[in-house]
Amino acid sequence: MTEDTIITEEDDARAILDDIVSRNTRCQSSDDKKLIYKAFELAMDAHKQMRRKSGELYITHPLAVAKIVSEDIGLGPKSIASALLHDVIEDSSYTVDDLKNIFGDTIASIVSGLTKLDNIFDHTQSLQAENFRKLLLTMVDDIRVILIKLADRLHNMRTLSSMAEHKQYKIAGETLYIYAPLAHRLGLYTIKSELEDLSLKYEHPSAYQEISEKLMKYKNKNDSLLRKFGLQITSRLYLEGYDPEEFDISSRSKSAYSVWKKMQKKNIPFEEIYDLMAFRIIFTPRPGISEKTQCWHIYSIITDIYTPKPDRLRDWVSVPKPNGYEALHATVMGVSGRWFEVQIRSNRMNEIAERGLATHWKYKGSDSQSHSIELENLLKKVRELLENPDANSLELLDDFKLNLFSSEMMIFTPKGDMKILPKGVTVLDLAFEIHTDVGYKCIGAKVNYKLVPVSHVLKSGDQVEILTSEKQSPKYEWLNFVVTPKAKNKIKDTFKQERKDNIQTGENKLQEALNQKKLSINSKILNKLQTHYNIPIKEELYYRIGKNTIRLDNLQEILSEKTTNKWIRYWRLSFGQTENKSIVPLDKNSNKPTTMNLSDDDHTEYKVASCCNPIPGDDVVGYRNKDDKIILHRRNCHNAIRLMSSEGDKIVSANWESRKILSYLAILTITGFDQIGIVSKITNVISNETNVNMRSVQFETHDGIFEGTIYLYIYNTEDLNNIIEKITEIKGVHTVNRQHGKSE
Fold first, then answer.
1. Are 712 and 693 in contact (CB under 8 A)?
2. C-beta separation of 249 from 279 below 8 A
3. Quick one: pLDDT at residue 361?
4. Which end of the chain is less packed: N or C, by CB atoms within 10 Å?
5. Predicted TM-score of the model (pTM)
6. Whole-angstrom Cα Rg for the chain
7. What is d(CA 551, CA 542) in angstroms, rounded to the nearest whole number?
8. How far is it, in rounded angstroms, from Cα 374 to Cα 178?
9. Residue 115 has pLDDT above 70, yes or no
10. pLDDT digit string (tens) for 659-671?
11. What is the pLDDT of residue 27?
């Protein structure tokens, strides 16, 4: 590459920066501009001669992140400067102290929080999870850290095509599991939707392509209906005295990911999703009239034209979502019998919906205060997650997912005070949320005036009175059902020393028992015991042995068990057996192949995950466990997405090779109208297929409706889809779906 070309690229980069600065209304002072250009020049120097895998100058990445931070999130000069510098410490000789001396403590702290850890850490932990813990620690002090990280992740996803396939799985899985929900939790709807769509594009490329094309065709086909629907609302608003400048009506289609997710969740085809299009009405508030009143007034005007669907009314104006989202959603019957969703928002509500809680800084008064409270509540939850120093990073990742991203619900106290808690919390979680001492003394509750135990799972809208007793004391068994980090940490604090003593006692007891057999504790023995007692963590096994809840009388019997009985099926694992073996990529840290071809004609051990039961023809990925064996998951399996997000370096991309030597377990669930001989017709269809064998058949009928489950041994998805199609054609059969297996 010539020097002239490099100079041209650098000039182009400076032009992009000029555009970013000129567009940002918060970067107009000379000091602000000086700070940003200073950061840019240092970043240019730090990344000099560096290029991305796409071939572009590396500085194009920090510039793209700065552009997202400025234009899509709406942050100011320090955030833009931090975005420009976010990879400097990681990729050059500059240190945190250097940045502190040049730019001050704030920018140095933000950049440090965005810098990945070195590979020097406890290798029993996950580097991905450790980096996420570090990110959260810095986020608690400055929310801009996570906002810039989301911008960084968005640009990485936009340019993911230049990465190796197994890296694409890792980054896409991590994005879907953590970063897209985090963007949603912060109210960054636009970023969240794009992250989800891009994750789908790389995890399920054919599904993404098919859904995107169908959405485009649907919009083109129904364009006249959409215009007619919008014009009727516009005309009625004019009649009610609204000026054209006071409101804006636009239509949008459902995102490809949300369509795919709904298809998966409800087991329905694209054609059966009725809310593919939504209309958004954004209005300018009138002086002297509250935004809430205007939302309901516009809703009233719309329902004078179209019939509403009562069970689809969503009022997030009276009670905003925890991420600050405010709007009134209604579904109405439009022209030609089509259902349309209508979203009603003010200008302020719309900006918060698009840019998230960070935009509350722009607004003054009570609205600003309410969003500040929401943001502080979020940071408070993160602090609670980080309070337990004994939790490993993978536990933290799971707790973060459960408590910050799960659906939230409203619980009311006897006095009518509202508490927002994650879906699935128990009475005891609520007790600890009120106060630690209330949690320790809790003996039960009255839920809607009915007496319930501490383990009772609450529902949204419940009114709860916590009951306490001075005689009550914390019980370690409470950890089996509480879900919030606060409750878990407070209970663990009480038993910390006692638990440590029992763990040591249990380990000693196990070693003494093994000494009699001239054995010592090793990973193989621990795996057998943990599998037998279904205990995922060895410390929990030691604890139970120490507490005498697990006795070692049958130790010999457990050690004699064949572990292969626990494995569903083995296949051959061949690493890149192609004409040119050198094309198989190797992981630079482990020197192990990152791509594998799957075949039936060998006995190298790797197994099918029972949570999703993949069969030949499915889109799959492999996970290399601690015993160096490969666990095969379907790509859309929840556990696979979790593993890609937390232990992505152990993910192996997989492809099917030959088939029809071994058969694999598949499960079908069938529903329909009960008729004489219907079961016989179904089983005859299967019996007539030469490539399919039934393992078991279970059918139940109730009020004229039957439900059945059939376990099949099958060679591949082609044979399975053929069976499903033939059963569907039987008169009386309503649905035939493949069951993905039981959760692990």
1. yes
2. yes
3. 43
4. N
5. 0.66
6. 29
7. 11
8. 20
9. yes
10. 445 667 788 899 8
11. 81
Q: What is the DSSP letter of 169?
A: H
Helices (H), 186-243: 189-203, 205-221, 223-239
Of 50-59, 602-611, 619-628, 662-671, least confident by mean pLDDT is 602-611
CA 259/CA 204 separation, integer angstroms: 13
The residues, ordered by sequence, that sit 6+ positions from 112 with a Cβ below 8 Å of its Cβ are 89, 96, 99, 138
Question: CA angle, corner 350, sides to 345 and 353, nearest 5?
Answer: 115
Question: At residue 426, what is the residue type?
Answer: T
Please give the pLDDT value at position 430. Answer: 94
> Three-class SS of residue 388?
coil
Pairwise CA distance, residues 150 & 137, whole Å: 16
Residue range 664-739 in CATH 3.30.70.260? yes
CA distance 262 to 264: 5
Confidence check: pLDDT of 133 > 80: no
Q: Nearest to residue 202, comparing CAs of 256, 151, 149?
A: 256
Span 133-141, mean pLDDT? 67
580 vs 629, more confident: 629
| Secondary structure of 431-471 in HEC code, one letter for each residue | HHHHCHHHHHHEEEEEECCEEECCCCECCCCCEEEEEECCC
Between the CA of residue 256 and those of 205, 213, 216, 659, what are the distances in Å? 11, 10, 10, 32
Q: Kindly report the backbone phi and psi dihedral angles of residue 688, in degrees, each rounded to the nearest multiple of 5, phi listed first.
A: -75, -10
Q: Considering the domain 3-203, what is its CATH architecture?
A: Orthogonal Bundle (1.10)
CA 200 centroid distance within chain: 12
The predicted structure's pLDDT at residue 328: 94
Q: Could you say which architecture CATH assigns to the domain 222-355? A: 2-Layer Sandwich (3.30)
Q: 439 vs 232, 420, 489, CA distance in Å?
A: 56, 17, 12
Q: What is the pLDDT of residues 433-460, one digit of tens each?
A: 899 999 999 999 999 989 999 999 999 8
* Nearest C-alpha neighbor of 692 from the set 672, 658, 731, 721: 721
Question: How many CA atoms does the CB half-sphere of 421 hold within 13 Å?
Answer: 31
652 close to 635: Cβ distance less than 8 angstroms: no
Q: Read off the tokens for 128.
A: 């991905």
Q: Please, which residues have CB within 8 angstroms of residue 354's CB and are 6 or more apart in sequence?
A: 188, 189, 190
Quick one: which of 448, 442, 402 has its CA closest to 422? 402
Contact present, 312 and 330 (Cβ < 8 Å): yes
Residues 6+ apart with CB under 8 A from 638: 611, 743
